[in-house]
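Subject: two folds for Thursday's group meeting

Dear M.,

Sorry for the delay on this. The cluster queue was jammed most of the week, so I only got both jobs back this morning. I'm pasting them in the order they finished. Each block is the input sequence followed by the predicted structure tokens. Could you check whether the formatting survives your parser before we put anything on slides? The first protein is the one we discussed after the seminar.
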Amino acid sequence: MSKKNKIVNKIMPIIAIVIISASFASSVFAYDGGNKNNTQNENKIISTQFHNKQNRKNKKTNTTRENRRNKKIEQYKEIQTAIDNKDYNAWKIAISQKDTKKNKELLAVINETNFKRYTEAKILAQNGDRTEFNKLKIELGLNDNRK
């Protein structure tokens, strides 16, 4: 027997054992109670349920954000309309709707008597006349330290 044949004869049983072991192992791991696709289908269902839940949550969050944003825009428009119309009562109602420290301070300082000066200050600020605006703020007692 040649040297080559001796090597092949030694290697062949090892190769056969590896092939048999591999096929046996794959059939054992692939068996899932008779339905190969069962686990895959369950994973797809779970994944779909998770993504659907996330999508619903994202839509709800986006809707909530959108509602808050729309509410802020609406409040701003109401305040701006009251200032443009120099309507103290409408301004007071619009400012009262948002309970913030700044709004509480405004309501404590601005009254029906000095509201006209306040509207003049706001209009000056919107037109970019910061010097005159700052003078009116000090006059009204609204001089906060913010820039």
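Second protein, same layout:
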Amino acid sequence: MSATPRDHFVYRAWDEFGLLLYVGCTKQPTVRWKQHKTSEQALWTQYAQRFLLSGPYERKTALRLEGEAIDGESPYFNCTSEQRRNDLDRRKMSRRLMKALRQRRPELFPCEVGSTEWDEYAHQHEQIEKQVDSAYPAITNQWRQATYLNDVRRLSRLADTA
């Protein structure tokens, strides 16, 4: 029986104030960092100043530790398991409402852009998105960045008054 490889790492990134920005899990830390740096979604990389790499762990253990760290330490730029469930529920609700619209108004599927049907489809779709947003508010990377920057401003003001 072969042993499960211990080749995964859990990493954390902090900013200059010691605020936890991100927690991740990877088999190749250097490659993963380069991916983060070139991703438009990884807004946190521009603020990262300090890193901690722990491991190596078995993959299953590393994923569990990553999830526990995200849920327990609340890094600014990660989704908690609750937020991931919220995103899934958003998508399910949106699909369910679009399916109901298709059954109620089949003439809107498909339709030509610019047609009367298109205008009605766009209006109906906008109403569905409002319903979904009301039930499950989206937490975007831009929202996460704004929250982080707001907290950094507060810390800077506190440091200036100290």
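Two things I noticed about the second structure. The beta strands are 6-14, 20-26, 50-58. The chain has two domains: 6-73, 81-138.

Cheers,
T.
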